[in-house]
Amino acid sequence: MSTTPRIAVDSADRAAVDGRHIRALAFQAVRMEYLRHVLSELSLTAAGCRALVIGSGRGLPARGLAQLGFEVVAVDPSPAATALARDADDGLGITYLTSPAEELGLPDGTFDLVYCADTLEITERPQAVLAQAARVLRPAGVFVYDTVNRTLVSRLIYLGAFQAFPGTRIMPRGHYAAHRLRRPAELAEALARAGLSAKDVSAFKPRDVRSLVRATRGRRRGTLTDEQLPELVHMVLEQEGSPAVTYLGYAVRRA
Predict the structure, then answer these.
(1) Facing residues of 203 across strands?
(2) 8 A C-beta contact, residue 133 and residue 18
(3) Residue 95: its H or E element
(4) What gap in Å lies between CA 237 and CA 226, rounded to an integer?
(5) Residue-wise pLDDT tens digits, 47-94
(6) pTM check: above 0.85
């Protein structure tokens, strides 16, 4: 007899459905692809550079940056997520801290790159997050992010499928809200107010939306593991596309 799965963010219980971790796994490959593109675009190398990950969760984006050669600090507001990240660490020398994105408590001008994950679509204070990111960046440092656009399609997916519809729900109700989803133009204005010059926006999406539905339903039923989801969902980058749902972007701190 089937049972309703327990939805729990940042849970150590492998049986629990953690939509935040599912999302991180599905996004990891495209996040790293975009980061490599940004580094190439700006002729930057990771060796000898420091990177900060805001909203690191269980540490996947931080480990990806460390594997590129960065010295990495990872912060997350959840003590549970920080503990899970430390447990999953691969000896890459990452520093894990628990801290809200709006009040980092880190020194000014000490990072060459800041990656903001799982944050801009959650926070009620995006301007504070961007101001903190700009503050800890060195002049000409790079701010990279991914977030969710505010469109009819994104509302159907993030507010409906992911946290309301019984067959595909993977997030606690209320985790996402329409007013916390930001259009690229709105975010560009907020970046400018923080002293960051927006340089790019690139859409990304599942190769096939039907695969995303199958993946979420399979994970809820227990017929798929977290580790099987990325290949099934297969996120693809569309650098020329207009983001219907999710998008990546980067900006540079003005001197």
Answers:
(1) 238, 247
(2) no
(3) strand 95-98
(4) 21
(5) 999 999 999 999 999 999 999 999 999 999 999 999 999 999 988 999
(6) yes
